[in-house]
Amino acid sequence: MLGSRLFSLRSFVVAMKPAVKRTADVGGLLRSVAMVRSLSGSVPNKCASVQRDLISALQEEIDEEKKMAMEHIDGSSSVAGFDVSTKGAEVRLHKKHGSNESIHMTPLMTKYLKTKSLKMTRCPRPLLSFEIVSRENNQHDFEVREFYLAPADKSGKQDVEADVYAASGEFADQAINDLLFGRYLEERGINGEFCDHWSSSPLPTLYEHSQYIDLLDKVKNFISKKA
């Protein structure tokens, strides 16, 4: 539209072209400014409304979840002979076996508790590790997915180098399967009875619940902060 208007004016009064173009440009600029002001007034208001609604919804969910958690507090500090500690999303089970052997188990809370990492250390700190998976036939039992032996980190973190060889438990000889994955672990309290205790214990569910509440609270605090 602007181009056709300038063309028709140029047909009659060529000398007026610069003035008319400036006038047209200023008009467009004023319209743009008005539009920006309109948007700048509405967009922040909409964003603020969404932010308020989200913060309110998060707080309601946090309050409701805390109320539910209070109704199921157990206070257990041990499960099937294992002492319990927590760090972040992990529940850590640990116990002593004999005079020089420590057993540590870390169920993965974010995978519905089906996978467990079992690590055993002996002086002077070699590490025998198993990855245990609960069977999915509604029986409280497990199978060893893989295992490896490696020197443990002296700092106590038990980090293992990436180049350490790990063997699949699926291909182990039957005698080794029965003795190492069966009787050897059973002597240390890792058996079907342990799986039964862990599955029926309220502790993993309660702890995962607390982690969910903590996550909601962190999200609420993040959204509440002004950019």
From TrEMBL:
Question: Under the cellular component aspect of Gene Ontology, which terms does the record hold?
Answer: mitochondrial matrix
In which domain of life is the source organism classified? Eukaryota
**Listed Pfam families:** MAM33 (PF02330)
Q: Where are the transmembrane segments?
A: none
The record ties this protein, via PANTHER family, to: COMPLEMENT COMPONENT 1 (PTHR10826), COMPLEMENT COMPONENT 1 Q SUBCOMPONENT-BINDING PROTEIN, MITOCHONDRIAL (PTHR10826:SF1)
Species the sequence originates in = Ditylenchus dipsaci
Please identify the protein, giving its name as recorded. Answer: Mitochondrial glycoprotein
Annotated SUPFAM superfamilies: Mitochondrial glycoprotein MAM33-like
Q: Which InterPro entries match?
A: MAM33, MAM33_sf
Q: What Gene3D superfamilies does this protein map onto?
A: Mitochondrial glycoprotein (3.10.280.10)
Q: Which GO terms describe its biological process?
A: cytosolic ribosome assembly
Which family, according to UniProt? Answer: Belongs to the MAM33 family.
